[in-house]
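Dear colleagues,

I hope this message finds you well. In preparation for our joint manuscript, I am sending the S49 family peptidase (Bosea massiliensis) sequence together with its predicted structure, so that both groups work from identical material. I would be grateful if you could confirm receipt.
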Amino acid sequence: MDTNLQPTAISWPAVLAARPQLIADAHALELHDAWVTAEREFNANLGRPVSDVARYRVVDGVAVIPVSGALINRYDFIGEGSGYTSYPALTREVNRAAADPAIRGIVLAISSPGGNADGIIAPSAAIRAARAAKPVTALVGSIAASGGYWLAAQAGEIVLDNDLSQVGSIGVYTMHMDVSKLLERIGIDISVISSGRNKVDGHPFAPLPADVRASIQQEVDDLRLMFAREVSTGRPALTADLALATEARMFSAFNPRTGARPAIEEKLADRMGSLSDVVGSINRGRYPGRFMRKTGMTDVTREDHDRAVAAAREDGRVAGERAGREAAATRISSIMTSDEAKANPKLASHLAYKTETSVEDAKEMLAAAGPAVAEPKADDKKSESQTYEQRKAAVGGEGYVDTGNGSGTKATAKAGWGKAVAAANKGLGPGARN
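The corresponding structure tokens are as follows:
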């Protein structure tokens, strides 16, 4: 092993290694740096309120919101030379610009290789909602890859700033770190003790089993399909099938060998243009997005604006509820189709539909409960509910003797009817009648 690689592997945050990521692989270490910086800033500013001042610049009435560096679902990075962008900060600034009647349009100035998958739904929904109220353009500087492209695709148009601009990487990846050989080399043995068959799937202290690898592969495949569908929602011309067919390739603004414009020809971008071009188009009412006003934005009344913002917020709320329903359906399905549910389907149904128990916790509870106890047979229930007279009549003149187990048996009264009745009365208790 190259010992020079050990510090990087050891220091890689577990939260990044264990989850699918939306970032161009060549930029993965940028995500690591962003996360470490975010943790440091979060701890240093714990308890301090987030600034309520707009953190975007305004150019001729158009808000220019920076989306730069790695995208992380942590703390409060956006612009200001940080080099990183956090989803909470981006969501807040997009909503702020959409709600400001003095802002005619929004430009997302994107230069990002992507980042975390967790958290991207909120800014994505905010961009689509803002687009319902006013023009939103994604202006790609150097790169809009993976998660960066996911966000760009929600704008009304994607404009490439220069011939070196790149877009794409519609894909997902994760990784598994096997540090068992390193630990063996330095004399450390790890004993993993768990409860629940899948509790420690993918832990880093042993090679990855084939079935666990297949499960992780399914997770990233499903997220890539979701990625493609989200792109096609924002860009109908780029269908989900076309997005998947790119196989996560990057597309450049210009091919010097052929003179072609691959990103535009493959429908991942709309045109070339600078910031001044985009701002001018918005102010002249020539924005080609879905929600363009032909007469421009200058004649929009406050009432028009308020209605558009209300509609945008409603779209955002509906998108959030849809995401919640999809997550709930996935949780229910994962519980009900698990191996643990097969032995106790009734308990599984209760946990899936009547509680908010997580999939992992539900599996552990089902495993601990074991197989369900069988219901009493219909005949057993019937015999338990019979009265003394009914049971006596059922055995006729031979007499009825309760054997003590509640089921009753026929028995020949060896000592005569009187002894049989006495025995029956004794078994039935003080409430019995002759």
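For the figure legend, we might mention the following. The chain has two domains: 3-186+206-300, 379-428. Residues 391 and 400 are 7 Å apart (CA to CA).

With kind regards,
E.M.
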